[in-house]
Design brief:
single chain, five-stranded parallel sheet, five-stranded mixed sheet
Length: about 250
């Protein structure tokens, strides 16, 4: 049996109960680079195998991951494929599910909280809000070909734009939106290291987005009028979080 498990944004308290149970029961866990060590540590009895992919760094080929999943399951192991966020949101969970199906391996999907929603929410940014945004669009920023068709077809200001894996292309994304009629003064944010103790949020405008200094932490880009709520809702959220972290120390 293979469980394709979403690890959420990082904080182990944001895992689903089923995800935590599958980790506790696992014999083998294949985990992504952005899964937090605290979440991986919940697999107390498992062989833990890093199979992460990071842009510009040595990565495990997807075909190799598929083979490892099939091989471990055929040996009678309880296998968890642990993926950051949700397995089916830019996580290649669909490809792995197809490979398991083709090999006759039983599997299940354990959804996780995607950073597309959780990162803005934890920064006090609702992706929809009455009077500001009635829709949101999530795109992958890893390649221009991945986001250009969607963003080019989007009427300026008609939806909140959320970009995952797009920090290296933030300037290009901003330039594209401005060229399609978005105002340079449109509020924008980058939510770094969401749900972790190192989390912080940059807020500014679409015109400034490309000039944000690069950071090693993963970041979620948000563009739209809803970002203007971060100053109010972000403060309301952060106080209990600070109190929880202080109590844990």
């Amino acid at each position: 049996m293979v469980s394709l498990v979403g690890a959420g944004p990082g904080d182990p308290e944001l895992l689903t109960r089923r995800a935590a149970l599958r980790l506790a029961e696992a014999d083998v866990v294949l985990y992504d680079a952005l899964v937090s060590p605290e979440v991986v540590a919940l697999a107390v009895h498992a062989l833990r195998v890093p199979v992460g992919k990071r842009a510009g760094r040595p990565s495990t080929r997807q075909e190799s991951i598929n083979r490892l999943l099939v091989r471990a399951a055929r040996r009678g192991k309880r296998v968890v494929r642990l993926k950051g966020g949700d397995p089916f949101v830019f996580g290649r969970g669909g490809e792995e599910a197809l490979a398991l199906s083709a090999a006759g391996i039983p599997f299940e999907i354990v959804p996780g909280l995607s950073s597309a929603l959780s990162a803005p929410a934890l920064a006090g940014i609702p992706v929809t809000h009455r009077g500001l945004a009635s829709a949101f669009v999530v795109v992958s920023g890893h390649a221009e070909a991945a986001y250009t068709p969607v963003l080019s077809a989007l009427a300026p200001g008609s939806a909140t734009v959320v970009v995952l894996m797009g920090l290296s292309r933030s300037a290009g994304i901003a330039s594209l939106l401005v060229s399609k009629g978005w105002k340079r003064t449109t509020p924008a944010a980058i939510c770094f290291a969401a749900s972790t103790e190192d989390s912080f949020t940059w807020t500014g405008t679409l015109g400034d987005l490309g000039a944000v200094p690069k950071h090693e932490a993963p970041g979620t880009i948000v563009v739209g009028e809803v970002v203007s709520l971060a100053g109010v809702l972000g403060g309301a959220h952060e106080q209990p979080e600070r109190e929880r972290l202080h109590a844990s120390r």
